[in-house]
Design goal:
With 267 residues, this protein is mostly beta strands. The chain has 4 helices and 14 strands. The strands form 2 sheets. Strands 1, 3, 4, 6, 9, 13 and 14 form a 7-stranded mixed beta sheet that branches. β13 and β14 (224-230) form a beta hairpin.
Length: 267
């Protein structure tokens, strides 16, 4: 896995792989043979990221993305440069599912955006991140089960916080804001137009190590949803072609034909 020094570096790398907002509701299958612009990266300490089968029965398909850190200093992400320049006010749906195999009682994979506090002010420097952590929702984070989170839910507690000014003076980690409170405080905020990224993260300052999974990330813009389905195995025979078969490890294949057979028959 590549190690990147994040805050600014990751967004610079990811901005090279822009993924356009979908024109209609659609599902995007992310597999080792076709990552669809998503990348795993270590932000701090050590950690691992991989597409795996399971655990248990994921919300979509048979697989998910696994993020692990050995201790609280580790930080690992799965991120994509997507929806750049999208105003928060245009986001009509946010949803994703997580699974915790081990870790502290409040820990679950966080959803983050590289943020611009005002898309219209002409300031295009990196302005930090807007962060959603499920434990702020008031619903207990459980071990050994899949849970679905709705980050735009405005009750009963705030969910979102910022790691840089001016956001961290309005919505700090210690007193996060609801989605509506964020929109009220920063009505022109959105995913950064140049350095924007959608990020799923575990670790960096957490109380313990962590092993967990994420799947079925849905982002809706003006009523049009894109759902990302993370899978360890190929879902389409085209993912097996042009050497793509060699990227899979769960299961692994000896050649393209074996990979295509798996897609057609499931074995």
């Amino acid at each position: 896995m590549r190690k990147l020094v994040l805050s600014v570096v990751l967004v610079g790398v990811l901005s090279l792989s822009f993924v356009a907002v979908a024109a209609q509701s659609t599902q995007v299958d992310v597999t080792p043979g076709d990552m669809q612009g998503w990348v795993f990266a270590v932000e701090s300490g050590t950690g691992t990221g991989a597409l795996v089968n399971g655990p248990d029965t994921p919300p979509i398909g048979a697989g998910s993305a696994n993020l692990t850190v050995p201790n609280g200093a580790g930080g690992v992400v799965l991120a994509v440069a997507a929806f750049q320049g999208t105003p928060l006010a245009d986001m009509t749906n946010l949803e994703y599912s997580t699974y915790r195999a081990s870790g502290g009682p409040a820990l679950a994979i966080a959803l983050q955006f590289n943020i611009d506090f005002d898309l219209a002010d002409g300031v295009d420097t990196f302005q930090g991140r807007m962060v959603y952590e499920p434990y702020h929702s008031g619903t207990p984070v459980l071990t050994g089960v899949w849970q679905t989170w709705n980050p735009q839910d405005n009750a009963p507690l705030g969910n979102w916080w910022f790691n840089r000014a001016p956001g961290n003076s309005v919505c700090p980690q210690s007193n996060p804001c609801t989605w509506q409170e964020v929109l009220t405080a920063f009505p022109n905020a959105g995913i950064h137009a140049d350095l924007g990224a959608v990020i799923l993260k575990a670790g960096s300052g957490w109380s313990t190590g962590f092993d967990g999974n994420v799947d079925a990330l849905t982002i809706g813009v003006n009523g049009m949803d894109t759902t990302y389905n993370f899978e360890a195995a190929p879902t389409d025979k085209d993912q097996c072609k042009n050497g793509g078969w060699a990227a899979f490890s769960d299961p692994s294949f000896m050649n393209q034909g074996q990979c295509i057979k798996f897609v057609n028959t499931g074995k």
